[in-house]
Specification:
Helix content is 42%, strand content 18%. By secondary structure, the chain is of the alpha/beta class. 42% of the residues are buried. Bound molecules: pyridoxal-5'-phosphate (PLP).
């Protein structure tokens, strides 16, 4: 997107999602998560005014700094944690977020199960290291079945899978693999697609797309 106007950028992203849905013959709802990491309230407010209701942050501490005040003004907003979560921040994450997209290991299953409360049970996505990249977060594809079994045994509110495909290669095969893994494990939620590839992700079944720079402009 080349425009400086947040409303125009949002309209552009929504139009791209609609185009991809039509191409894929989809009529279901796709959740647009506006990834607001590094951006302050002055950048977030125009998107709220434009109709965005779900925002994504990658760090618990940063989110704790800016979202309580914004949510007081806009009670209907929902928050998604999309970045790595340390077990010792699990209680803070459960208190602040409505969705956690980065559940990627057994120790975090235990920590989240302990942190959940009757009125506060954020939707959980298990993050998969879909390209088996050594430096990347997410559970190895080979370990996914065991981790999902643990998530289910702990009775966490499991919604689906999340992944970030390897950079600078065609993402479609990775989206297709994530979709197959979800299907094989009886899961319907698919958190995949970022600014560079969300239309492709939508054609391959994404239910949640995480879009930052296409909505906010480039991060500093
Ligand atoms: C930053 C981030 C995004 C958004 O990235 P853009 O390329 O700016 O759209 C999506 N998902 C995760 C996990 C991120 O950390």
């Amino acid at each position: 997107m080349t425009t400086d106007d947040p409303a125009a950028r949002l309209a552009g992203v929504l139009a791209e999602i609609e185009r991809a849905k039509k191409l894929a013959g989809r009529t279901d709802l796709i959740e647009l998560i506006a990834v607001s990491k590094t951006h302050g309230a002055e950048a977030i407010e125009p998107l709220i005014a434009g109709g965005c209701r779900v925002f994504g942050e990658n760090r618990v501490q940063e989110a704790q700094g800016k979202w309580p005040a914004l949510r007081e003004k806009h009670p209907a907003l929902r928050l998604a944690l999309i970045g790595q979560l340390q077990s010792n921040k699990a209680a803070d994450a459960v208190a602040l977020f409505d969705q956690i997209h980065s559940l990627d290991r057994l120790s975090l299953v235990t920590a989240l199960a302990r942190a959940m409360e009757p009125g506060k049970r954020p939707d959980c996505f298990v993050q998969v290291n879909i390209g088996d990249e050594p430096q990347k977060g997410g559970c190895a594809v080979a370990d996914l079945s065991a981790l999902l079994a643990a998530v289910r045994a702990a009775d966490l509110p499991l919604v689906g899978l999340m992944a970030i495909p390897p950079a600078a290669v065609e993402p479609a095969p990775y989206f297709a693999l994530l979709s197959k893994l979800a299907h094989d494990h009886g899961l319907t939620g698919l958190s995949m697609g970022m600014s560079s590839d969300y239309p492709t992700a939508v054609t391959l079944g994404a239910t949640h797309v995480r879009v930052g720079s296409a909505l906010f402009g480039a991060r500093a």
